[in-house]
Prior knowledge:
The protein has 14 helices and 14 strands. By secondary structure, it is of the alpha/beta class.
Amino acid sequence: MNIRSVISERERNLPGAMIGRLLKIAEESRDVISLGPGEPDFCAPAYVVDAMRSAVAACETHYSPTDGRRELKEAIVKKLKRENKIDARPENVIVTAGSTEAIMLSLMCLVDPGEEVLVPDPGFLGYIPTIELLNGFAISIPLKQDNGFQINGDAIREQIKNPNKLRAIIINTPGNPTGTVLKKRTLEEIADVAIEYNVPILADEAYEHFIYDRARHVSIGSLNGMEDYVVTFHSFSKTFAMPGFRVGYAVGPKPLIDAMSKVHIYTSLCAPTPSQIAAAVALNDTKNAKKSIGEMVGEYARRRKLILKRLSQIKGFHVDNPEGAFYALPSFFFKKKLTSVDLVEWMIKEARVAAVPGTEFGRCGEGYVRFSYATAYDKIETAMDRLEQKMKKLN
Ligand SMILES: Cc1ncc(COP(=O)(O)O)c(C=O)c1O
């Protein structure tokens, strides 16, 4: 049979991610420097790797409870109090295969077909397709470079045309791809919107530790009265450079966490058990955690300084001062008219440098290109030399 003819409309309507195609080209061409990936280039810290190894050797290779192993949930509760000022109990936490799965589960439990979710645009490329897979509608909250890609309460209200259909508002701080850290004042405004419209906030904080200069990470879930409104997502992937372990978690109101645990049985059943054991060690050994996170953030800060300086010297790029994550998202304007996809294709072909077109992150990403600095310092330096030299042709 022709299997293509029976593939679901749901899958057929899903946009193919351009990022995959571009990163494949970059990988296959050895001389291309890729500033595309959104994952740390560091290995997981040795103490975490040791914990993983011991767990597997001790035959901890079985399923875990669907909401996560008890000792990890207890470690998460302590961490939430210590680092995020969020008061939670183990019943408020679900451990998942990366925060990607937690985001998916929360949307599966909140959104029925035809219902709406507000998403930052440009925003993490998982949000819109996940909502659309559930036959929901993603409504963009347009983010603009001229105010540092900050959201505000009024910009959110403006997009709420159908309050009866609104099921969630997604926020992401520090933001991917913008690097923007939402200020406490902004989070308070968003909290007011949540109360006014009685709508949950899904707060994605995957980059919570990647903060530079004088910025400060604030969890909206820590604000007064927000415990019934906010689901917060955290990840081990970026903080501990362990994306392949597949561990993340969500903390939120118990009835929603229970619903997510019920659905979890049918998605992956549980997060990988040895990875959960390693994740608990990652959090509980606070001395080693502080040291390894500190070293990684120090190195990202060095690369950030370099990439922002060099991008700002390339005629045609305009870059601000993103205070978080590990991305720079310059807008571009050249004499030669280009879409963001054209520009990325051109950069790969002419300068042998790969990045991600802004449109991968939503319609409002047109006119931007995302550079990741989760790549070695000297590679970033060479990539910037190449761009500086070649981009002259576009002006
Ligand atoms: C903003 C944001 N949220 C969530 C994720 C998912 O991370 P993971 O599923 O590895 O926890 C990513 C990954 O790049 C991300 O950038």
